[in-house]
Amino acid sequence: MQNDKGQGVSHATDSQVPGKVQEKVPQKVEDQLPDSLHNTGSNQQTGKVSHAVGDSKVPQVLQEALPEKVEKAVPNAIHDTGNQ
């Protein structure tokens, strides 16, 4: 049963987080995880998206977790964001 903070159920459709942990944390915490790690469909709302436009050697979960300015600081040979 879910309480007013969203605890008691998982809000993910796919997750690498253990089920008991998913059930104990508030939905707000679940939504802050990158969708490639714990898919709640919240990446677009939280800004946790990859800014790569080409190839990337950076794992998807890190691409979604890092701020855009950090992604753009990585050389395009490693993580192509289209910046010169």
In terms of topology, how is this protein built?
Blueprint: E1 14-15, H1 19-24, H2 27-32, E2 38-39, H3 43-46, H4 60-65, H5 68-73
Antiparallel strand pairs: 1-2
Fold and architecture overview:
- It is a single chain.
- The protein has helices at residues 19-24, 27-32, 43-46, 60-65, 68-73; strands spanning 14-15, 38-39.
- It is elongated, with a radius of gyration of 15 Å.
- It has five helices and two strands.
- With 84 residues, the chain is mainly alpha-helical.
- Strands 1-2 form a two-stranded antiparallel sheet.
Strand content: under 5%
Element order, helices and strands?
A: EHHEHHH
Terminal CA distance: 51 Å
Unreliable stretches covering 5 or more consecutive residues: none
Give the neighbour order of strands across the main sheet.
Answer: 1-2
Largest sheet: 2 strands, antiparallel
Number of strands: 2
Radius of gyration: 15 Å
Please tell me the overall pLDDT. Answer: 80
**Helix proportion range:** 25-40%
What structural category do the secondary elements indicate? mainly alpha
